[in-house]
Amino acid sequence: MKKILVIHGPNLNMLGKRETGIYGETTLTDINEALKNLAKELAVDVTVFQSNTEGALIDRIHEAAVEYDAIVINPAGYTHTSVALRDALAAVDIPAIEVHISNVYKREEFRQHSYISAVAVGQIAGFGVNSYLLGLRAAVDLVRSKQ
Ligand code: CA2
Q1: Which entry of 8, 100, 115, 132 is annotated as an active-site residue?
Q2: DSSP code of 118?
Q3: Which of 27, 33, 38, 78 is deepest in the core (most CB within 10 A)?
Q4: Residue 112 lies in a domain
């Protein structure tokens, strides 16, 4: 069975608790449950990981390379700041799909640049929580088309 790692970046553990006007009422637990349900339907194995720490995210990406077929990642604030996270994704031999809950291109200018996009297969932004589910579908299509 194909294995997909879903990574949630910093502050996403606060989803549904603060800033509900931007990110909605859905909690990270709800998102993870929806991902697990879709994984079952698509017959893939999904693992989720969240960290507020750049180094922990980088370590998880390095470890993933030996076990997983693809990564779906919402790098959150690190999208716009982290060369190190970009380098980690570039260093591993598995494809990554970048997802964002909000449409970052409709927001502040500093959110309109992503350090991650150039090392991702593609980006999905603006579909709310569904961005993650679309990201998982994209990852599954990708790994199945490669076999
Ligand atoms: O739209 C997205 O998914 C973002 O990656 C979310 C990040 C933001 O920095 C990116 O520009 C776009 C922020 C995640 C933090 O989420 C919070 C949720 C509730 C309360 C506070 C922060």
Answers
A1: 100
A2: G
A3: 78
A4: no
- CA nearest to 74, candidates 89, 90, 59: 89
CATH code for the domain in which residue 68 is found: 3.40.50.9100
- Which ligand 1 atom is nearest residue 100's CA? 3
Instruction: State pTM to two decimals.
Output: 0.97
| Residue 16 belongs to domain spanning | 3-107+117-145
Please answer whether residues 51 and 9 qualify as being in contact, where contact means their C-beta atoms are separated by less than 8 angstroms: yes
Q: 67 CA to middle of ligand 1, Å?
A: 28
For residue 143, give both structure tokens: 């790994």
Q: Exactly one of 23, 68, 78, 132 is catalytic; which is it? A: 23
How many structural domains are present in the chain? 1
Name, in order, each residue with C-beta under 8 angstroms of 101's C-beta and a sequence gap of 6 or more: 15, 23, 24, 74, 125, 127, 128, 129, 131, 132
Q: Kindly give the number of the ligand 1 atom that is closest to the alpha carbon of 23.
A: 18
* 100 part of the active site: yes
Tell whether 56 is covered by a domain.
yes
pLDDT, one tens digit per residue, over 14-68 is 999 988 988 889 999 999 999 999 999 999 999 999 999 999 999 999 999 999 9
* Residue 145 neighbours by CB under 8 Å, 6+ apart: none
